[in-house]
Amino acid sequence: GLQEIWIYGGKTLELAAGRDNTLSARLTEHPNSPGEVTAVHPEGIGSIEVVSGETVRLANPDNDITGKATIADGAKLVVASSGALGGGSSDEGKLYGYVSNVWTESGTLQLGDANATVVEQAIGTIHVGTEGSINLQEGSQLTIAGFENAGNRSLADNKILGHINGADDTGLIITGGTELLVSTDDNVTDKTSSFLTTVTGDSTLTLGNSKSLGTGVIKLTGTNDGGKTRLRVRATSTLRATVMRSSSRMRGRRSQVR
Predict the structure, then answer these.
(1) SS3 198
(2) Does position 110 have pLDDT exceeding 60, yes or no?
């Protein structure tokens, strides 16, 4: 069967369900030759898009793409293995790039499913519109890690305005100096939105209202180089959440923020 798909720089691979909805072939960027590199077709930046209304599973842990992953209206992208959106490594230790931008207005980004093991996936930046959603399946973790040296890559605005679904064994991690806004009143106050949120690596998390992160724990972790992590709550909101603060100087101090 199909083993590998090359996405030339500046090109977007459109994905739709076929005989089944799983793509197991490896996705990798193919640099244009020097004479082909332009602003419109930059070297080695490949993107993907799940077309409207389709559900597609990416199952190859060795994918190596650094462009944009678009989830069109009503579509769902299932990350069925760690590294399916890049960020894994080869047997020789080579690190693969991860997507710099996940963007959806009314689609769904899902990590893991009934046929997948626990999925841990890093991405650069993210935008989820008010009709969009993030679905964290059993034990899965989504890391928004920032993206240095973006070059010609299009980065998202780091806003999650839609629903986040995840039980208390799942997690959202903000790192790499990322500034993320989560603002939705749709994260219900029960176990379906009780995921752990970790803010680390000189990053900032801003909450738009008291339901933005459901009922889960928020963990603020300092850095050894003196970097700071920040939690901001808009003045019009009242936050009821458990916050755990830890750094090289603080060990497991737990407080209630109301």
Answers:
(1) strand
(2) yes
